[in-house]
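Record type: monomer structure entry
Structure origin: computed from sequence
Chain ID: A
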Amino acid sequence: MKTIAVVDDDIAIGNMLAEILEKEGYRVLRAFSGTEILLLMKETKPDLILLDLMLPGLSGEEVLAEIRGVPVIVLSAKVQIEDKVDLLLAGAADYITKPFDPKELLARITVQLRAAPSPSSALTAGDLHLDPSSHGVTCGKIPVRLTKTEFAILKLLMQNPGQVIAKSVILDRIAEDTPDCTEYSLKQHVSNLRKKLRDAGGKDYIEAVWGIGFKLSDREILTKS
């Protein structure tokens, strides 16, 4: 299930967007300010962001400058061509003027998600390599045998480089592949995963962030092959 973040301080508009998206089968992440969405993204990375420009605190333009690796569709009442051009050049994937037709918005979302990198693409972090298509993991040239749950956890962490993923978010995002994983068992699964990677690569690839969750080690740089 794809996650779409709705960033708008207008409660009525936000509720309307959430209802439309949820009816289409999307998971919705709500934020009411620029600061809030940047904080939320430290725990989970949405697949797409719907971003209003007139936000309390950080403006939409300032938020856009901080976002990397996630397509952003700007929703704004500004209609000047210059505004649209500036935002597209600043990194927005698309721009839709308020008021808008829900069908047009859903079509634009579909286009952006279709263009996004496939989650089945191989991932590399330092000398750690993960291939979803073959369910293979290697450290350098050493193959690492992982359980289905361990593989799902590692893939999620590698898809969100530099981000601390909360335990609750991990459980939610891997539930489709590993519904039997619980909060109690997650700690053991991560411990086993860390040991297997350490034994193969000679270093820690996963860091525990006390009281929050887990992240890839800052020493590992993620690239997609």
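Annotation 1: The chain has two domains: 3-115, 123-224.
Annotation 2: Residues 9 and 196 are 45 Å apart (CA to CA).
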